[in-house]
């Protein structure tokens, strides 16, 4: 088996490409089912955020063409996607996932949101049965690594996020947020975080619009703001000086004509739009309207640069931890790879021991309890001595590159392949009797 990871992020692809690959939460279960049905994929996870879309798979030894899956699923030519993709296998895939989960690969190094996003992706994948074995172990370890990085380094100190950086940018534009009116479009975690930062920096009032009105009410009540029905978005948006928008809409909800309408109602007082949605909520054409200032998720990169510089030393310390954890995880996986062979060997020799005792029992005559114990101890001792060398060799080889070769030799020497085949046939017969498992097709 092999780990395989492929994706795009804020460093490899512009927002115009990322928004075409973004998978909304509502479509994620269906995408995961298609992903795990792709040839070669045994388990899979899909992480889709405003800054990245990544596919993680545990594949059969022959591997899988994950680039083909992306092209087919999103109906995009390979020539459009390929220049922006990064791809990792085995240890490199493990290292990348650990770095992502620990927020070392984020636009804002140390931001806390990515860990929650990976956990949500993991929960969805488990719910649809896409994660169940080695990938489950990998993700569980990734969460522990993220905790260790936060505990042992200061990479998360003075924690920032895309939302907080957006608020800092607004302060630079307006000089002060005191008395400014803010409109939050979307009632997700990112907009809630933005609201906290805005109020902390003196914002006068907050309006909240969301397609689900109850969620808008809930968020507005947290901050003594005003909830507005989404159908009234365009007739009320001109009340705001700052609009922070992050919805899951597949297309832009603010276009050039909306900007022109807002400005006319505001008598040309400027408006500032911070679009942290992917796909984007604001059409780039709106930026051409005098008095409208639009910043999308990629525009925030420049504001992030200073944070990255301050945390570089802590990030280097965190990478040392990551490398250590990758080595530990690989060693543990290799050890787990030899366990089935050790168990098969134990079962095989125990079967032989029992058969031999039964074969000679008639010639031994009636045995006293003490004699029974002596026969048991003698035969078990012989089996344990026979097993000692192959088991020790397997455990040692698990930490080396030749582990697969040693496992194969041991299985051949003791004819464990034939036993494994028989066990597989027994399981298949049992599954056939119970009606098999349901299948699906994308």
Structural class: alpha/beta
Biggest sheet strand order reads 7-6-5-8-9-10
Pattern of helices and strands: EHHEEHHEHHHHEHEHEHEHEEHHHHH
Low-confidence stretches: 430-441
What is the β-strand count?
10
Describe the global form: elongated
Number of domain modules: 3
Largest sheet: 6 strands, parallel
- Fraction of residues in helix: 55-70%
First CA to last CA: what distance? 24 Å
CATH superfamily of the largest domain: Glutamyl-tRNA reductase, N-terminal domain
Mean pLDDT reading:
86
CATH topology of the largest domain: Beta Polymerase, domain 2
Rg from alpha-carbon coordinates: 29 Å
Count of alpha and pi helical runs: 17
Name of the level-1 CATH class of the largest domain = Alpha Beta
Structure notes:
It is a single chain. By secondary structure, the chain is α/β, with parallel strands linked by helices. Helices cover 55% and strands 13% of the residues. It has 17 helices and ten strands. It has a six-stranded parallel beta sheet, sandwiched between helices. A four-stranded antiparallel beta sheet has the order 2-3-1-4.
Quick tags:
about 450 residues, alpha/beta, Beta Polymerase, domain 2, Rossmann fold, 6-stranded parallel sheet, disordered C terminus
Describe the structure in brief.
With 442 residues, the chain is an alpha/beta fold.
Topology summary:
Elements: E1 2-9, H1 15-21, H2 28-36, E2 41-48, E3 52-59, H3 66-74, H4 78-81, E4 86-89, H5 90-101, H6 113-127, H7 134-152, H8 162-174, E5 181-185, H9 189-200, E6 205-210, H10 213-222, E7 226-229, H11 233-236, E8 242-245, H12 256-265, E9 271-275, E10 292-296, H13 301-310, H14 312-364, H15 369-397, H16 403-413, H17 416-433
Parallel strand pairs: 5-6, 5-8, 6-7, 8-9, 9-10
Antiparallel strand pairs: 1-3, 1-4, 2-3
Helix pairs in contact: 5-7, 5-14, 6-7, 7-14, 8-9, 14-15, 14-16, 15-16
């Amino acid at each position: 088996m092999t780990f395989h990871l492929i994706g795009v992020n804020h460093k490899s692809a512009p927002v115009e490409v990322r928004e075409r690959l973004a998978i909304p939460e509502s479509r994620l279960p269906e995408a995961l089912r298609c992903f795990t049905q792709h040839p070669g994929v045994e388990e899979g996870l899909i992480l889709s955020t405003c800054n990245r879309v990544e596919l993680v798979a545990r594949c059969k030894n022959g591997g899988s063409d994950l680039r083909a899956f992306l092209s087919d699923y999103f109906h995009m030519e390979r020539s459009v996607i390929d220049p922006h993709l990064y791809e990792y296998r085995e240890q490199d895939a493990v290292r990348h996932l650990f770095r992502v989960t620990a927020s070392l690969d984020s636009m804002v190094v140390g931001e806390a949101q990515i860990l929650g996003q990976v956990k949500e992706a993991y929960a969805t994948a488990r719910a649809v049965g896409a994660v169940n074995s080695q990938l489950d172990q990998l993700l569980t370890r990734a969460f522990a690594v993220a905790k260790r990085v936060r505990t042992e380094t200061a990479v998360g100190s003075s924690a920032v996020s895309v939302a907080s950086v957006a608020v800092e940018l607004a302060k630079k534009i307006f000089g002060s947020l005191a008395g400014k009116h803010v409109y939050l479009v979307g009632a997700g975690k990112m907009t809630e975080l933005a609201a906290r930062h805005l109020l902390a920096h003196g914002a006068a009032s907050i309006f909240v619009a969301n397609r689900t009105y109850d969620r808008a009410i809930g968020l507005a009540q947290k901050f003594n703001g005003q909830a507005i029905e989404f159908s009234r978005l365009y007739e009320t948006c001109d009340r705001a000086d700052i609009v922070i928008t992050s919805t899951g809409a597949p297309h832009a909800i603010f276009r050039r004509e909306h900007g022109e309408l807002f400005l006319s109602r505001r008598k040309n007082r400027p408006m500032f739009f911070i679009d942290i949605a992917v796909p984007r909520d604001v059409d780039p054409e709106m930026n051409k309207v005098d008095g409208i200032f639009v910043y999308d998720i990629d525009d925030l990169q420049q504001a992030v640069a200073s944070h990255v510089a301050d945390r570089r030393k802590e990030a280097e310390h965190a990478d040392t931890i990551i490398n250590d954890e990758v080595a530990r995880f690989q060693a543990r996986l290799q050890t787990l790879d030899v366990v089935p062979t050790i168990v098969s060997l134990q079962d095989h020799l125990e079967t032989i021991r029992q058969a031999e005792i039964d074969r000679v029992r008639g010639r031994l005559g009636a045995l006293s309890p003490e004699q029974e114990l002596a026969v048991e101890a003698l035969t078990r001792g012989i089996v344990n001595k026979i097993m000692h060398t192959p088991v020790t060799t397997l455990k040692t080889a698990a930490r080396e590159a030749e582990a697969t070769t040693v496992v194969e030799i041991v299985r051949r020497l003791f004819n464990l392949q034939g036993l494994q085949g028989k066990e597989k046939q027994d399981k298949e017969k049992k599954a056939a009797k119970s009606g098999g498992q349901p299948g699906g097709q994308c």
